[in-house]
Amino acid sequence: MFKLTSLNLNGIRSASTKGLEDWVAALSPDCICVQELKAQAPDLAGRFEELAGLKGYFQFAQKKGYSGVGVYAREEPSDVVVGFDGGEFDAEGRCVELRFDTLSHKRSVFSVYFPSGSSGEERQAAKYRLLDLFYPHLEQVRAQREFILCGDLNIAHQAKDLKNWRSNQKNSGFLPEERAWMTRLLTEGGLVDVYRQLHPDTTDECYTWWSNRGQAWANNVGWRLDYHLATPALAATAQACAIHKASRFSDHAPVTIDYGFSL
Q: Taking 90 as the threshold, does the pLDDT of residue 263 lie above it?
């Protein structure tokens, strides 16, 4: 079995004060993909290079206290690919890929963090630029290997993926163009939304993010923004999924899926 978790930390130092390492040790995943490190390499030195015995591999944002992604893995990868565009979004720390290749297979695990466009038109435009670049990147990777992509995509795909879908149709995260991109990725792009493969109809149970405003958490006014997207062969092995809502390390809940293969 391969146990894989994804979690937007909203700051690794903040999450660590809330018991993150003990929780990871108890869960014992094979990999945990993290987003929004909000830290640079010197901040992790001597403290967060490993997490509960898992070794970390990272991409940091150039801007301090911003973005950043990582994968903590039990097995040593055969290769680590940091970034994907060599420019704007690598500077923001948006993507890291761990490769686990053997003579018989080629497999990757990605941790990705898509921009939020909620702060205004400039960041929404950046989000669209990333989508335009990332789709062909995934097509290239898919032509060569099997993979699971985990992360905070900042997109709720369907109406059942957020509480107040009617009132959010003009808001970033549920815009028609964003949702169409996800649909294309899951049809023409050939990827599988693994949570939805296991739980096609859930609504209130599926949310992974709650605004800090108002009583969103208390009233479960949430969005499903955190995903496992996989190539069909790996998605087909998925056995169980848990959204760990009781574990409050950030405004996101960890998402764990058990897959029926070993690295």
A: no
Per-residue tokens: 208: 């992974």
Any idea which residue has 């003009």 for tokens? Answer: 170
Average pLDDT taken over every residue of the chain: 97
Neighbours of 229 (CB within 10 A): 23
Tokens of 107: 């497999």
SS3 category, 15: helix
Cα–Cα distance measured from residue 253 to residue 6, given in angstroms and rounded to the nearest whole number: 9
d(CA 190, CA 96): 21
* pTM of model > 0.85: yes
* One-letter amino acid for residue 81 of the chain: V
pLDDT digits (tens, 9 = 90+) for 7-23: 999 999 999 999 999 99
**Active-site positions?**
152
Dihedral sign for Cα 26, 28, 29, 33, please: positive
Contacts of 56 (CB under 8 A, 6+ apart): 44, 48, 49, 50, 70, 71, 72
DSSP label of 70: E
Using CA atoms, how far residue 65 sits from 43, 92, 115, in Å, is: 10, 11, 15
Relative to beta strand 50-51, strand 31-35 is unpaired
Mean pLDDT confidence for 186-196: 98
Mean pLDDT of 127-140: 98
Q: Does residue 233 register a pLDDT over 90?
A: yes
Taking the C-alpha atoms of residue 224 and residue 227, their distance in angstroms, rounded to an integer, is: 8
Number of alpha helices (DSSP H) and beta strands (DSSP E) in the chain: 7, 15
Q: How many C-beta neighbours within 10 Å does residue 76 have?
A: 11
Residue 133 corresponds to which amino acid?
L
